[in-house]
Amino acid sequence: MLIPTYNERENIGQIVARVRAATPECAVLIIEDNSPDGTGAVADALARDDAAVHVLHRPGKQGLGAAYLAGFDWAFSEGYDVVVEMDADGSHQPEQLPRILAALADADVALGSRWVPGGSVVNWPVHRTLLSRGGSLYARLVLGIPVRDVTGGYRAYRSSALRPLVADGVASQGYCFQIDLVQRALVAGLTVTEVPITFVERTRGESKMNRVIVLEAVARVTRWGLARALGRLRPRQSPARRSG
Ligand SMILES: Nc1nc2c(ncn2[C@@H]2O[C@H](COP(=O)(O)OP(=O)(O)O[C@H]3O[C@H](CO)[C@@H](O)[C@H](O)[C@@H]3O)[C@@H](O)[C@H]2O)c(=O)[nH]1
């Protein structure tokens, strides 16, 4: 279980406790970018109390993509068969993780999805809902991928499937990283499934989303779409499936 953190001091303790209670078999790596609010010290205390909790300290905020790439390397080197991504802010429910993990029985990648039947968002501002739904729709149309929630950050990968996807690095830095990996999985012909989740807006701390993150996603998806139109990028459409 990889949990990237930037200024999540008020959230990290609770989310780690919930993960450990819901899935005691899951080890946790907190990928901490030297948060000014002292998240690192809280994370270190959690690791001292529980041998299954680890912390990777990085020198500064380098974006979600770089944080996850460092986390993937750690998971591969530790020999984990499954890699899970989850936000630290409580928007992803650890209690729903067993369903996501179960979906890996028939898939290489299981995406927690807000936008399939049974999925939902709670307390998300209208502009975030529109951005997320609009972004997913744009990516689906431009890239021709059959995934409803391409930006979601609650997902599980088989390590053997993930490793080749990121072997040459991933340039996407912000939340576009999530779209990038979905696309890479489909281009590689992997089986991608969507599992309905309930996404609950954080009650403590702040989202790190900003205009640069949105613009990066629009620019990259548009560029990939053009490459696809020119025949250079063709998802081998293993149909994205839904599981319950
Ligand atoms: N280490 C590190 N962590 C980061 C950075 N930027 C964000 N994070 C961490 O990444 C998680 C998601 O960031 P949020 O800022 O809370 O995201 P959001 O706007 O609420 O959520 C949306 O984007 C996420 C990114 O994939 C999605 O996961 C989520 O489902 C949603 O669509 C949080 O745990 C946050 O602390 C960074 O530069 N470095």
TrEMBL record:
Keywords: Glycosyltransferase, Transferase. GO terms for cellular component: membrane. GO terms for biological process: glycolipid biosynthetic process. Residues 2-163 form the Glycosyltransferase 2-like domain. InterPro entries: DPM1-like, Glyco_trans_2-like, Nucleotide-diphossugar_trans. It holds the Pfam family Glycos_transf_2. One of its GO terms (molecular function) is dolichyl-phosphate beta-D-mannosyltransferase activity. Belongs to the glycosyltransferase 2 family. This is Polyprenol monophosphomannose synthase.
